[in-house]
Amino acid sequence: MFGSDDLVWPGLIDAAVRGIEQAMYLTSAQRRGIFHDNAARFLRLSVKQIARHHDHPVRSTRHIPSPPPR
């Protein structure tokens, strides 16, 4: 899940995504955090659910931490 509060130029979201994908200063783990882990945490997905969506075997029973209660 990646988003922006920029409603003036919504067409620039593609450029923002490309910018993150091509940013040499970000590691692949940081990109995954931006594009995947934030959404998984927001949706409160378990490791099993994530693995099922990515067709990967479950390697851990750890859950991605849930956001703090509001």
Number of domains: 1
**Low-confidence spans: pLDDT under 50, at least 5 residues?**
none
Span of the ends, CA to CA = 20 Å
- What count of helical segments does DSSP give? 3
The percentage of residues in β strands lies in under 5%
Helicity level: 40-55%
What does this entry look like structurally?
With 70 residues, the protein is mainly α. The chain has one domain (1-70). The two termini are 20 Å apart. The protein is built from three helices and no strands.
Write a brief structural summary.
By secondary structure, the chain is an all-alpha fold.
Q: Any key phrases for this structure?
A:
globular; 3 helices; mainly alpha; 0% strand; single chain; 70 residues
Topology, pairings included?
Blueprint (H helix, E strand, L loop, with lengths): L12 H10 L5 H15 L4 H8 L16
